[in-house]
Amino acid sequence: MRLMRASCRRGTAACPIRSCDQRGWKAEQPAGRWGGAGSPAPTLQCPSPGVLPPSLPAMAHAARLLAALAALLAAAATGDARPSKIAVVGAGIGGSAVAHFLQQHFGPRVQIDVFEKGTVGGRLATISVNKQHYESGAASFHSLSLHMQGFVKQLGLRHRREVGGRSAIFNGENFVLEETDWYLLNLFRLWWHYGISFLRLQMWVEEVMEKFMRIYKYQAHGYAFSGVEELLYSLGESAFVNMTQRSVAESLLQVGVTQRFIDDVVSAVLRASYGQSAAMPAFAAQDTDLPKKDIKAHLPQGAMSLAGAQGSLWSVEGGNKLVCSGLLKLTKANVIHATVTTVTLQPTEGKPLYRVRYENEAGTGSDNYDIVVIATPLHLDNSSTIAFEGFDPPIDVVQGSFQPTIVSLVHGYLNSSYFGFPDPKLFPFANILTTDFPTFFCALDNICPVNISASFRRKQPQEAAVWRVQSPQPLLRSQLKTLFRSYYSVQTAEWQAHPVHSPHTPLPRFTLHDQLFHLNALEWAASSVEVTAVAAKNVALLAFNRWYQDLDKIDQKDLMHKVKTEL
């Protein structure tokens, strides 16, 4: 809303406002959303002679209030009132973030119900070992995870102190790459083994990441995308879309990275991050957490530059899952512990209405919602519990499989002899990645609890420590004995962590129906905590823009030019 000049109703020489000259103020009402172009704008009448007038800023403020009231009345008359109830299915980082963003856009009066069949936090989870809690899901984030940074700041959470440790890559027989305590020596080793491949990789990743960061500017200006392909095209045009159809290995070979570097380094990072090989699509490997988090966490310090890692890692004191519970509490969302079974389109006039049916230990229930956001995977192999009924044409959800990930927290003594160090006191590494061999585990980390005191120190290799082992299958007893001399306990977490990325997988859409959205569609292009938060913001903007028919904010072309113009 803005103020424009209009004729003063009194317009007399006796008007006490200096130099009135029949110039008063009226509030210009925006067209379309709140009442249409033809709606009359309210006017302000000049005070009577002899009465001290309010200041012009006060009059302008009063005009804004009057216009806002008129807008609300017009909205009620035209059916453009805000939604009354919104359903979010899933209380992981996606569901928690989208509930937060939806409330930001629609206001605190909208009731938001969040359905969760398991534990709030989803893939952000912890496991208790010896009365200490350890991350079993996403362990840390990069400083460029802007949405996650914003959540932590808004919730008043603290960053957890990182305890450093040396890393190496193991090929089943020996270490192909080892970190030292000297940065220049690390760089020399990279150059000696792989030439300038690490520089070529750095430039490739930096170019892609620079374009990916545009999404934050688009979202700050209210733009949204109805499909994954539209979002990627807005960031990097056809080059980004093509990266979902081309493998990592093919893309890197094209920019001059050697096959040996791909086999030794890139494949190790992808195995630790996705449990997949360099045959996965190139864009998925550009995930904002992958190149920055995992290379820094697992590779020698010199190799950090391979992904252009110019910032630092961080995690949340007390556990990363506190972000999810904190957002839901901040939003005052109603968390319903139940499994959603059906979403049915109700026969109504005007805006659609969706009936959500659910079941839990208390029985079954259902309720109607104006907007429904699915913030959980719909692509699990024949195990999706949500059915969509009453839609014509039927809702077509892209089918695909997910990569199972097993995280085992082992409290015990590492068998350093398996890695070529008979004396455990001489074993220098806290993080071990693997190439394609051995096949029974992908990564091994000496981890710290989620609460770290100032005097905390990482356990030495000869001491009993908590090790996190990532593997594609549950570890057999014989495999545990291979990795550990002895152990006190083994606790595991298993989930469908990431889609099995394939260059031939079609890109899904966020919009399933008019006000029915699938947030997790973006993880079929790239999968990480920050990417999920980006998808949550996109879906919240998409729902808001579609609700008020602000179609100019959806799937716009040449957004960089538009954003520069708006600035």
Automatic annotation (TrEMBL):
Gene3D superfamilies: FAD/NAD(P)-binding domain (3.50.50.60), Protoporphyrinogen oxidase, mitochondrial, domain 2 (3.90.660.20). PANTHER family: FARNESYLCYSTEINE LYASE, PRENYLCYSTEINE OXIDASE-LIKE. The keyword Oxidoreductase applies. Keywords: FAD, Flavoprotein, Glycoprotein, Oxidoreductase, Signal. It comes from the Eukaryota. This is Prenylcysteine oxidase 1 like. The keyword RNA-binding does not apply. GO terms for molecular function: prenylcysteine oxidase activity. Belongs to the prenylcysteine oxidase family. InterPro entries: FAD/NAD-bd_sf, Prenylcys_lyase, Prenylcysteine_Oxase1. Residues 177-556 form the Prenylcysteine lyase domain. GO terms for biological process: prenylcysteine catabolic process. Transmembrane segments: none annotated. Its cofactor is FAD. Pfam families: NAD_binding_8, Prenylcys_lyase.
